[in-house]
Amino acid sequence: MKTLTTRFFVAAFFLAAAAVAFANPFKSKIISSDDSVLVITVPEDHFMKITNFTQDGGTDRAVVEVTLPGDTENGGTTNVLTATRIDFSTGANSQNSPEIGNRVTIAGPAIVKIRPIVGAKLFISYRKERDEGSGGGGGGAGGASPTSIPIFSPTPTPTASPTCTPGPPFFTPCPFP
Predict the structure, then answer these.
(1) What residues contact 2, with CB distance under 8 A and at least 6 apart?
(2) What is the DSSP-derived secondary structure letter of residue 13?
(3) For residues 42 and 95, is the Cβ–Cβ distance under 8 A?
(4) 138-162: buried (b, 16+ CB within 10 Å) or exposed (e) per residue?
(5) Among positive and negative, which fits the CA dihedral 19, 22, 26, 31?
(6) By the 8 A CB rule, do 47 and 109 touch?
(7) Of 6-20, 68-82, 85-99, 139-153, where does mean pLDDT reach its minimum?
(8) Contacts of 69 (CB under 8 A, 6+ apart)
(9) Euclidean distance between CA atoms 63 and 115, whole angstroms
(10) Most buried of 102, 111, 164, 175, CB within 10 angstroms?
(11) Contacts 24+ apart (CB under 8 A), 133-139
(12) Residues 55, 85: contact at Cβ < 8 Å?
């Protein structure tokens, strides 16, 4: 019984270690009005999924601001997501109905900034992942080679038809046409 229990705990330990090592959990942050700007760097060949961005209080609306390094042509910075307000007791939106939250995916390389709002608490949930499918099948320089997919089509098979072969001199005709 003692060895069975030991084996169980060893197996449980390895399963727990694998879950921690390979899991890519979501991260959550709370940003108060007296906090500094939250800066999240998304490296190249990674992307960031924001699944929740809410705001409680304050009069101004919080935004997720993305800067693409080296993108001076378009100004380099843009707002990609606004916070979903969960408290409508203050500000210009005090009479509006509840809002629907959106999600956004940001491809790297990028710098994501969330500035605190006076009198508000912000909550964000996000996850950064490695882009395993770089290349995207666009035929570009992604390095991925297309995989051939065999296509099977039914080929007609010949059916056997009866034939007669001539026999000895006392020839008998074939019984079928």
Answers:
(1) none
(2) H
(3) no
(4) eeeeeeeeeeeeeeeeeeeeeeeee
(5) positive
(6) no
(7) 139-153
(8) 76, 109, 110, 111
(9) 7
(10) 111
(11) 134/45
(12) yes
Task: Please answer whether residues 65 and 78 qualify as being in contact, where contact means their C-beta atoms are separated by less than 8 angstroms.
Answer: yes
Place of tokens 């007669």: 164
User: What pLDDT is stored for residue 30 in this prediction?
Assistant: 92
Tell me the residue length of the chain.
177
Q: Looking at the DSSP assignment, which residues form a beta bridge with residue 125?
A: 28, 52
Please state, in angstroms and rounded to a whole number, the distance separating the CA atoms of residues 81 and 115.
Answer: 13
Cα distance between residue 48 and residue 104, in whole Å: 8
Say how far apart CA 84 and CA 130 lie, in whole Å: 27
Domain architecture of the chain: domains with CATH: 23-130 (2.60.120.340)
**What pLDDT sits at residue 141?**
47
CB atoms within 10 A of CB 61: 16
Q: 131 phi and psi, to 5 degrees?
A: -80, 95
Looking up tokens 């490296």 gives 43
| Nearest by Cα to 104 from 152, 66, 145 | 66
CA proximity to 38, closest of 19, 62, 61:
62
